[in-house]
Amino acid sequence: MSATVTRKLMFFFPKCECEKPIIYHLVKDYHLVVNVFRAKVTPDAEGYLVLDLAGSEEDIERALEYVRKFKVTISASTKGLRWDRALCTDCGACLTHCPTKALRVADPATRKICFEDDKCIECLACLKVCPFGACASVF
Amino acid sequence: MKTYEEINARIEAGKAVVLTADEIMDYVDRKGLEAAAEEVDVVTTATFGPMCSSGCFLNFGHSTPRIRISEAWLEDVLLYTGIAAVDAYLGATQLRHNDPANMDYPGEFKFGGGHVIEALVAGKTLQLFALSYGTDDYPKREIRTYITIHDLNQAIMVNPRNCYQNYNVAVNSSDRVIYSYMGQLQPNFGNANYCSAGQLSPLLNDPFFETIGIGTPVWLAGARGHVYAEGTQFAADVPRNEHGIPLGGAGTLALTADMKQMRAEFVRGVSLRGYGVSLALGIAIPIPILSPEILRRTCIRDRDISAPVVDYSSDYPENTGRILGRVTYEQLRSGEITIKGRKIPVGSLSSYAKALEAAHLLADQIRRGDFALNPPIAPLPARRTCKPMKIRTRRS
Fold it and tell me: What is the CA radius of gyration of chain B?
């Protein structure tokens, strides 16, 4: 039994694939532990899914092979939440609203803000409080 | 003791010693006040944050045939046109036409005057729609065209109230979210927001307006401008702490500069959910070190500056004047304050990082010999209070 790894991924389901129980098979056939952060079906019947997959490296690879058969786009950049460094002014309006401190002061001297992708749980609280539109959802 | 002439001679020769208000305290601690005052010519101060009382005068040039313009919109944001033909004023907090505001509460306020000003400075192409009633000399009654800042004869920023000397810390004691110009305030003291550059802020480094006056040159988003008047709501007769620092709002500055010389990263449209739109500006102001006393005042530290904590669910809207306590900027920057035994996480509307950047950019410009100083043409008022509005039911 090889070590368990966790991969955070975003799946994009084209219109035709939204009704298939793909996640069920990830659990049942590939023994993966699935933790869904955010899922959405757009008005155009396209689907987005941001999730953690935990299991052995081989199981995850086999599972992704299976998922790709359905023309699902798998993005390893993980994020349905985008923080745009160029739009951020480092004001700090987001700091008290981010529950996991994915957005935090990087350096107490300059008070520059940083965003740590892997800490983000996509609650989207930052979208509503950023005065400069630096935080955006890709879906 | 130094004079403006001596400081300017050193600036012109590229030999001026310039430090930011963030660096000066340690420098003075090391060198001693008297020696440092001999050496240092200028301390640069700065701030970056939403400054709602901002806007700009625009001149569009005359069309053929001519139009006077009695109503106009840039990107659907209303301009004030009750002045001469083809002149207009664009205000930072003006909403876009048909914005539902807070009818769908809390409103998103995604675009407004501040965003149009940002787009102008960034050189973007904007739609101008203008109407008029038609006169013998200005017959045209409607225009729809596209302009950039380069097409305009003038784009002059004229801000009646910037650079508040000190400011409230906003909290919310109620059981629902409060949407304010101080950001989103969570119920039951869920968070606190402040808005000042503290030890770097211009008027906290010159608390008695000894060097900053009418005519003082300023770095307004990268353009050389100046203080054209006391800011609106200016108050000098205020309670102060042992360092002379006002305990609340106090002084403000009215600033102007040419928008064609500005840098877009220091002119940013602001959207505040449930409140409205605004404009965030980066402003830096040089303080000439004319005496050790002036230098000593620039050495103020965050721990020596305190701000009043105000409840934005009741005391602020009801204008009671009550405060819940006082905290220093050092405490605020630690990320947590304690009010009435309760620990409250702290956020901010003001960017210290951007303010530092502005202070360094101005310092570099002075060192290069590109930014000469001049004395004020008139001082800011030494005695002035800020009056509330009386609601009267009769004229007499």
Answer: 22
Helix (H, G, I), strand (E, B) or coil at B231: coil
The one-letter amino acid code at B300 reads I
Structure tokens at B173: 């004691």
Q: Dihedrals φ, ψ of A26, to 5°?
A: -60, -35
pLDDT single digits (tens) A83-116: 999 999 999 999 999 999 999 999 999 999 999 9
* Residue B349 to residue A91, Cβ atoms within 8 A: yes
What per-residue confidence (pLDDT) applies to B220?
A: 98
Which stretches in chain A have pLDDT values below 70? Answer: 1, 16-18, 77-78
At B140, phi and psi to the nearest 5? -70, 140
List pLDDT tens digits, range B33-69. 999 999 999 999 999 999 999 999 999 999 999 999 9
pTM above 0.90, yes or no: yes
**Count of CB atoms situated within 10 Å of the CB of B190:** 16
What average pLDDT is seen over chain A? 90
Please state the ipTM of this predicted complex.
0.94
Domain positions in chain A: 4-75, 81-137
The residue assigned the tokens 């996640």 is A23
- For tokens 């997959």, the residue is A53
Q: Which of B23, B268, B346, B351 to probe by mutation at the A interface, max A CB count within 10 Å?
A: B351
- Phi, psi angle pair for A31, to nearest 5°: 60, 35
pLDDT at B396: 79
Which chain B residues touch A if contact means CB-CB below 8 Å? Answer: 48-50, 110, 183-184, 186, 190-193, 268-273, 278, 280, 333, 335, 345-354, 356
Q: Exposed, middle or buried, B66 (CB in 10 Å: 0-12/13-18/19+)?
A: middle
Choices 3.30.70.20, 2.30.30.280, 3.40.50.2300, 2.60.40.420: CATH for A81-137: 3.30.70.20
Domain A4-75 CATH (choose: 3.40.50.11240, 3.40.50.360, 3.30.70.260, 3.90.1150.10): 3.30.70.260
Q: Do A92 and B351 touch (CB under 8 A)?
A: yes
Question: What is the C-alpha radius of gyration for chain A, rounded to an integer number of angstroms?
Answer: 17
- Decide if B346 and A129 are in contact by the 8 Å CB cutoff: no
- B298 Cβ contact partners less than 8 Å away, ≥ 6 residues apart: B21, B24, B43, B45, B205, B206, B287, B289
DSSP B247-299: SSS---EEEEEEGGG--GGGEEEEEETTTEEEEEEEEEEEEE--SHHHHHHHT
Side chain identity, residue B240: R
Q: Do B183 and A93 touch (CB under 8 A)?
A: yes
| Residue B201 DSSP code | -
Task: Identify whether the C-beta of residue A120 lies closer than 8 Å to the C-beta of residue A97.
Answer: no
What distance separates the 2 farthest-apart alpha carbons in chain B? 72
CA–CA gap between residue B198 and residue B32 (Å, rounded)? 23
